[in-house]
Amino acid sequence: MTKEEVLERQRQLHIVFKAWMEDKKKREVLTFRRPNGNIVRHYPDGHEEVIDSDHIAMEI
Q1: What's the rounded Cα separation, in Å, for the pair 28 and 58?
Q2: Radius of gyration for the chain, computed over Cα atoms and rounded to the nearest angstrom
Q3: Contact 22, 34 (CB under 8 A)
Q4: pLDDT more than 90, % of the chain
Q5: Mean pLDDT confidence for 37-60
Q6: What's the count of helices (H) and strands (E) in the chain, helices before strands?
Q7: pLDDT tens sequence across 17-35
């Protein structure tokens, strides 16, 4: 597989994953970490609550 093919496959997987998560958000309560480190609980009605805003220290 060439580098270009790998990049295209990654792009396709990202699109499919994003669509899957959007569908899942409509049906289930999800808990996940935002890029800023916040742990967020998302509810099917669309509201979210920040559960933990502490950042995890990276271990070296």
Answers
A1: 30
A2: 16
A3: no
A4: 80
A5: 80
A6: 1, 3
A7: 999 999 999 999 999 999 9
Q: Residue 57 pairs with which residues in a beta bridge?
A: none
Burial 19-37 (b: 16+ CB within 10 A, else e): eeeeeebeeeeeeeeeeee
| pTM (global) more than 0.85 | no
60 CB-contact burial (10 Å; exposed 0-12 / middle 13-18 / buried 19+): exposed
DSSP conformation class of 31 = E
| CA pair distance 37, 33, nearest whole angstrom | 6
pLDDT for 60: 40
How many CA atoms lie less than 13 Å away from 33 in the CB half-sphere?
7
